[in-house]
Structure to design on (265 residues):
């Protein structure tokens, strides 16, 4: 994409659309979707393996490096994917500009809070082990 | 622009409810609904991780809720939504490759997604119960 000083204004905006970010959302949604497939499978296996186990066993497992890294990747990929997905839903159904903006902000806050809280808990578990 | 009269009776393009529901169309809607549900389902994951990090008391709290009837129902729904959205995503990957658009192919993909998500959910729950019955 031509973005240098020598390019015309038209060339700089071509393909970027109203959001000024082009196909970035579409691409990131696909990228995280691809990552989510193995990560969701791993997450389900981890949960099934921990069903009914006592707290000490759960801490030991979730805090072990391999499981903790998989869980961190799962959390970041899933929360990124769901932030973009929910934004698309909001943009499709909420037509009032102010409500739309407020909901998109709330969506960002919610997904970042969920991601950060989960990641913090995983790191806490890791440092306990 | 602001003075444009919208009161004129003009024909509208037919909306969703005009059409006879078809499997592929219902599956598209279900993909969005499961995604919407999973968005809030992630709160359960966060709650589970935070409870584990807090200590045995908090972990016993979430464990007893999840093993209640309501908790199991929510978890069952979450499992199905997760599997359905995942397989629906794989269906989208196939479309992204430019394949699977034929009339029979789309129908078969839709059925495969539905049968796959229900089967995977049941298998996960059977395995889950078998694991729970084992040594703790």
């Amino acid at each position: 994409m031509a973005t240098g000083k020598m390019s015309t204004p038209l060339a700089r905006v071509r393909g970027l659309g109203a959001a000024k970010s082009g196909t970035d959302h579409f691409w990131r949604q696909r990228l995280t979707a691809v990552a989510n497939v193995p990560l969701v499978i791993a997450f389900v296996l981890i949960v099934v393996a921990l069903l009914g186990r006592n707290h000490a066993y759960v801490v030991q497992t979730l805090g072990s490096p391999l499981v903790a890294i998989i869980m961190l990747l799962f959390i970041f990929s899933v929360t990124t994917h769901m932030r973009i997905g929910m934004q698309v839903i909001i943009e499709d159904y909420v037509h009032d500009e102010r409500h739309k903006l407020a909901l998109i902000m709330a969506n960002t806050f919610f997904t970042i809070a969920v991601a950060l809280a989960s990641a913090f808990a995983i790191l806490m578990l890791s440092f306990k082990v | 622009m602001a003075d444009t009269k919208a009161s004129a009776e003009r024909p509208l393009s037919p909306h969703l409810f005009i059409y006879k529901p078809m499997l592929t169309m219902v599956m598209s809607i279900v993909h969005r609904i499961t995604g919407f549900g999973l968005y809030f389902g992630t709160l359960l994951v966060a709650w589970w991780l935070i409870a584990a990090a807090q200590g045995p008391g908090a972990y016993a709290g979430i464990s007893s809720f999840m093993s209640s009837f309501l908790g199991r129902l929510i978890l069952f729904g979450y499992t199905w939504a997760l599997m359905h959205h995942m397989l629906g995503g794989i269906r989208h990957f196939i479309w992204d490759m430019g394949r699977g658009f034929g009339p029979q192919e789309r129908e078969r993909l839709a059925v495969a997604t539905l049968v796959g998500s229900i089967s995977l959910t049941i298998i996960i729950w059977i395995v889950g119960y078998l694991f729970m019955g084992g040594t703790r």
